[in-house]
Design a protein that fits this description.
The protein is α+β, with helices and mostly antiparallel strands. It contains five helices and seven strands; from the N terminus they run βαααβββαβαββ. The protein has helices spanning 11-27, 31-34, 43-54, 104-118, 135-142, and strands at residues 2-5, 58-63, 66-74, 88-95, 123-129, 146-155, 158-168. It has a seven-stranded mixed beta sheet with strand order 1-2-3-4-5-7-6.
Length: 169
């Protein structure tokens, strides 16, 4: 597997990974994380991934010429509490559900750590879905992250629960 800078031509593949992840979540009865609709048909999500690809923050993991994971890094998302020091923020991490457990996510997180160190940054942060059974939070904790503050994002008539995690490098 190799990790390379993502390009606009990778946007459909990244959206496909997000769609497959949503299908997996729906099949597991976990619709409260990302809902039930495909990301590839959501204009807001398409624009977001295109923005990641147009800058220098999108990275993709490739296996046998196929995109099997994506990482986007940059500034913190607007809905999370700001950091009090320089940081690199993980804006997206998604992997091919068919390859679950093969270490793609770990490799992409290692790449984010390398990028942060290259920038001279000692703080790496990420946010994730903070509801459900907490499995996603536990995943990041196993990857060396520590829980910081929970937050909520108003969505229609409810609040999407989020969790910020950080790692010192």
């Amino acid at each position: 597997m190799k990790i390379r800078r993502g390009e606009l031509s990778d946007v459909p593949a990244v959206l496909g990974l997000l769609d497959k992840a949503t299908e997996w979540l729906v099949a597991a009865g976990r619709t409260d994380q990302w809902g039930t609709e495909a990301h590839s048909t959501n204009p807001r999500r398409i624009a977001q991934i295109e923005e990641f690809a147009s800058g220098d923050g999108l990275w993709v993991a490739e296996l046998d010429g196929r995109v099997v994971g994506a990482l986007a890094v940059g500034d913190a998302m607007s809905y999370v509490p700001p950091a009090t020091e320089a940081e690199l923020y993980i804006r997206l991490l998604v992997t091919d559900r068919a390859l679950q457990g093969s270490g793609i996510g770990t490799d992409l997180l290692d790449h984010a750590r390398m990028l942060a160190r290259g920038l001279g940054v000692e703080l790496l942060r990420v946010d994730c879905f903070g509801g459900g059974d907490g499995a996603l939070i536990r995943y990041y904790e196993k990857q060396g992250f520590t829980r910081a503050e929970p937050f909520g994002v108003p969505v229609s008539d409810s609040v999407w629960p989020g969790q910020v995690l950080f790692q010192r490098l």
